Amino acid sequence: MDLSVDIAGLKLNNPVIAAAGTFGYSDEYGQLVNISRLGAVTTKGLSVEPWEGNP
Question: What pLDDT does residue 6 have?
Fold first, then answer.
């Protein structure tokens, strides 16, 4: 069954995306789920410059 999706030109083989806040660093889920089968994993916010609360 083809579950692939296209999101703004990015093709994912699977529409399931793990959210950064709940997924942590994936160590917690490695025993429960085959992580390589996820469509994507989101990251926390990134910036070149520090901002208040995130030096």
Answer: 97
